Amino acid sequence: MLQKFREGIQSNMSKLELIIAEYVSNAEVHASKCEELITEQGLADALEYCQNHKIDPPQCSLTAKSSNAVNLRANAKRMLSEIKWWSRRLEIKAVQDFEMAKIKSGQTSSFISEEAYEYQQNKRVK
Question: For the residues 78-107, what does the mean pLDDT come to?
């Protein structure tokens, strides 16, 4: 019964929404991995992990000694360990990848595909 419920939900989702759901489903894995990297190896490795996954990491200096730099590093550690932070970044990445695929395949002649436009409009309404 649960499987039929999921299939019903998925049949109402656009291709873009399915791609976003797939990307965002990995947020907890990425947050846990970053938390592990920060604890065992340090912030630099967690920032590199982001870059390796084509996600822009939080901006902070790894060497500056000012109180602002210390705060930025603390915020970066917190963000990298948060599922919500990863979910937002993965959603953005999914939309960007979807749009790039549309552009490369010639399926959109505009600066935004119809699917992405509809997704953004629906997101604003919610």
Answer: 94
